[in-house]
């Protein structure tokens, strides 16, 4: 038997269209893609070249500092789970090829949550001003 693609109903409730690969009809797949590009800009910038660039930054950090996270809102600490993080997050108008810094996964998540929280605060402030 060869690889046959079977069409299934779109996973979006009430959609009568058929989906072949991603579980969504072409219209809903495009909608999801637009949403991800708008809300999670790093999904667009995660090419293999970008992954290699990030790996080089982390490797260079390890050569100089070892498994050590400089910390974000916490003291510097040992961590073997280091990641490359945009200095200015892409979500905050940073460039996908912008400078990277190294943080552990926990600090990176904390920084991202703080960035998202401050963005939400600005949005809420704008809502209050325009109301």
UniProtKB/TrEMBL annotation:
Composition-biased stretches, type Acidic residues, lie in 121-131
- Outline the segment boundaries, as ranges, of region: Disordered: 30-58, 110-131
Top-rank lineage group of the source organism: Bacteria
Query: What's the name of the protein?
Result: HNH endonuclease
Species whose genome carries this gene: Pseudonocardia xishanensis
